[in-house]
């Protein structure tokens, strides 16, 4: 794992998550979650492993990610977001590296994600395009939240 940018710290402590900040960032700045209701985000967080990066001086949250997992075989990394004002400073790399390190002891067979614009970030941490995309299917729900 690469060193954290000066002045910032990764944490896997669920109690540090600022649910209001997470909801604002995702519902206002994430193309996949625009307009997502707070109660939906809170429920999603409650059913996931949540991670953050924090300003070491103020304790303010500056990045977030969550992983939906059974804890034994499969995980889905999602809702990865960095404060728009702080992008480009290595916080996304710190966040993803921390998530990968935290999950390593679980020895998950597969950790999936979907991204529209951050392929390079995830490739740095071992993600590759699907080897057999023709075997994967999806079923979308009634809500696009």
Notes on the structure:
This protein is an alpha+beta fold. The chain has a single domain (8-124), classed as Aminopeptidase (3-Layer(aba) Sandwich). Helix content is 26%, strand content 22%. It has helices at residues 19-29, 38-46, 91-103, 119-123; strands at residues 8-11, 49-55, 61-69, 74-82, 110-112. A 5-stranded mixed beta sheet has the order 1-2-3-4-5. A hairpin with a 5-residue loop joins strand 2 (49-55) and strand 3 (61-69). Helix 1 (19-29) crosses helix 2 (38-46). The radius of gyration is 15 Å and the shape is globular. The relative contact order is 0.17.
Topology:
Layout: E1 8-11, H1 19-29, H2 38-46, E2 49-55, E3 61-69, E4 74-82, H3 91-103, E5 110-112, H4 119-123
Parallel strand pairs: 4-5
Antiparallel strand pairs: 1-2, 2-3, 3-4
Task: Summarize this entry quickly.
The chain has 145 residues and is α+β, with helices and mostly antiparallel strands.
Helix-strand category: alpha+beta
SSE order, one letter for each helix or strand: EHHEEEHEH
The CATH superfamily is identified as Gcn5-related N-acetyltransferase (GNAT)
Which assembly state applies to the chains in this document? single chain
Q: Could you estimate the helical fraction of the residues in percent? A: 25-40%
Strand order of the largest sheet: 1-2-3-4-5
Please state the average pLDDT score: 93
Give the total of beta strands: 5
CATH architecture: 3-Layer(aba) Sandwich
């Amino acid at each position: 794992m690469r060193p954290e940018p000066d002045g910032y710290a990764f944490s896997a402590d669920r109690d540090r998550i600022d649910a209001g900040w997470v909801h604002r960032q995702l519902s206002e700045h994430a193309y996949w979650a625009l307009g997502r209701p707070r109660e939906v985000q809170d429920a999603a967080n409650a059913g996931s492993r949540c991670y953050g990066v924090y300003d070491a001086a103020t304790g303010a949250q500056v990045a977030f990610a969550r992983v939906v997992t059974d804890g034994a075989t499969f995980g889905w990394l999602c809702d990865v977001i960095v404060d728009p004002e702080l992008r480009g400073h290595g916080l996304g790399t710190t966040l993803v590296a921390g998530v990968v390190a935290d999950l390593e002891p679980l020895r998950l067979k597969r950790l999936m994600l979907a991204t529209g614009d951050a392929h390079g970030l995830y490739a740095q941490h071992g993600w590759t395009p699907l080897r057999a995309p023709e075997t994967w299917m999806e079923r979308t729900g009634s809500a696009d939240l």
